[in-house]
Amino acid sequence: MVPPSLRRWFVVHFLVDLLFAVPLLAAPELLLGWLGWIAVDPVAARLVGAALVGIGVQSWRGRNEGREVFRAMLDLKLLWSATATVGLLVSLLQGAPVATGLFAAVFAAFFCLWGSYRLRLR
C-alpha cells in the first residue's frame, strides 16, 4: 500500500517544481539575477527548468498509481535530489551566490523525505 501522505507529497513536489520551472523556462536571467546570479547561462537554466517540469508533471500524473510506480519514481527522485544537492554544494564552495545554499537545502530536504518513504516501500 502507498501511504496517503506520500501521494500528497507528490502533489506538493509537482507544485514546487512548477513554481521554479516556469520562471526558469520563461525568464531565467530575470529569476536568477534576482537571486544574485551575475552571469546566467539561459540554456543551462532552461534545461534545469525542463527537468523540473518532467519530474514534477510525472509526480502529478503518478500520484494515484500503485506501489511499483511509486518505488520507481522515488528512485528517480532520490538520484535527482542527491546529485543536485552535491552539485549545488560544490558550486557554493566555488563562489556561487548565497541562494545556492537555499536550493541545496531544499534538494537535501526532499532527498531525506524521499529516502524515508523509499525505505517504507521496500
Description:
- The chain has helices spanning 4-26, 28-34, 42-62, 67-93, 99-120.
- The protein is mainly alpha-helical and 122 residues long.
- The mean pLDDT is 96.
- The chain is globular, with a radius of gyration of 15 Å.
- 82% of the residues lie in helices and 0% in strands.
- The termini are close together.
The rough form would be described as globular
The SS-based structural class is: mainly alpha
Task: Report the biggest beta sheet as strand number plus sense, adding barrel if it closes.
Answer: none
Total number of helical segments?
A: 5
Order of helices and strands: HHHHH
Instruction: Flag low-confidence runs.
Output: none
Q: What proportion of the residues is helical, as a percent range?
A: over 70%
N/C terminus separation? 11 Å
What portion of the residues fall into strands of 2 or more residues?
A: under 5%
Number of strands: 0
Mean pLDDT over all positions: 96
Taking all Cα atoms into account, the compactness measure Rg is 15 Å
